[in-house]
Design brief:
This protein is an all-alpha fold. It contains four helices and no strands.
């Protein structure tokens, strides 16, 4: 120990003992009211958005007019749109199948 720490050790110890004695002899703390109890309830209700309850749009009839010539790039582009539309229709149909029975009846 250094001389400086020895110099302050005794006063600090005396102050600590005095504070502990004061705390021990202080009056009891006032009683606190119990913390309020918070109760939460989670209710899961399965509902379908109105968009899924709507009837599907009727399919477009095949083109029966004269054949037209278009570049293959355009045919690839238009077929990708048809594939996307078919995929979206399938997703909507699957989602509609997940609706509760009472929502599907409305």
């Amino acid at each position: 120990m250094t001389a400086l720490s020895k110099r302050y050790l005794l006063p600090l110890t005396a102050m600590s003992i005095a504070m502990l004695s004061a705390c021990a002899s202080s009056p009891e703390r006032p009683a606190r009211a119990a913390d309020p109890v918070v109760s939460t309830t989670t209710v899961e209700i399965k509902v379908c958005p109105a968009e899924l309850q709507m009837l599907p749009i009727a399919a477009i009839a095949d083109y029966a007019g004269p054949a037209i010539r278009v570049p293959p790039v355009y045919l690839d582009w238009i077929s990708s749109h048809f594939r996307r539309e078919a995929l979206l229709d399938q997703r909507l149909s699957d989602a509609r199948g997940q609706c509760p029975a009472e929502a599907a009846a409305q």
